[in-house]
Write a structure and sequence with these properties.
With 228 residues, the protein is mainly alpha-helical. It has a domain at 2-57 and 73-168. It has helices at residues 2-7, 9-20, 25-58, 64-106, 111-135, 144-168, 182-201; strands at 206-208, 213-216. The chain has a two-stranded antiparallel ribbon with strand order 1-2. A hairpin with a 4-residue loop joins strand 1 and strand 2 (213-216). The longest helix is centred in the middle third of the chain and has 43 residues, at 64-106. The protein is elongated. The two termini are 64 Å apart.
Amino acid sequence: MVLVAFLALMPLGLALRDRLGPAGPGSELVSAAFLAAAIVGMLAGLVQIGSAQAIAQESAGLDSAGLKALASGDTIWSGVIDWLDRGFVLPAGLGTYWAGRAALRTGSLPRSWAWLGLVISGFYGLGLASLLAQDAGLGLPLGAGGGLILLGFILSTVWAAWLGFELGRTPGASSPAEPAGGRGGLRDALSAKTRFGELQQCEQPATDFTSGVQISGVPCKGPNDWRV
């Protein structure tokens, strides 16, 4: 399941590139970042599965000295997997950050979704910085970096589900009650309807031919008397 989740980042980046605009530089960075995150994440998962399988096979029938040597080798592989995991967090955080910035700039996705992406990228960045600080021996609490990254991962599932909902909707769909010309077309239609009603209500004036005086009726306006 983890490998499938990493693999799903590839079409996710392509879908974001199409929605944010293929011509924009931000959308290309988003696609490349999620592609890199998918490759590094799948590599980390495969290495972890392979190392666990090798340790399980090699540990059968070993004495204490052999198990101790095997444990030292497992420590080396754990360090490699940890750095691969960090290599996944970096492009994933950058891709989320660039996607949020591009969405705020273009308005092609909800602003709340974009701000959630920026918050997630902040958690990823703080978590990665905390892990690096722990490696440098700066005395940060153990597990602080991993907790921040885990919180960002949990929020990223909500972010991705929200994105799937937004991508499933038809962008720019107009209301059925609104004319094809938008609000301007609605104003034109109402104006034409008003003019037509006034034309129906007007009457030709009746004139007393003996005196030449108009005695009844509302004069109609000619075509040149209307102003839009």
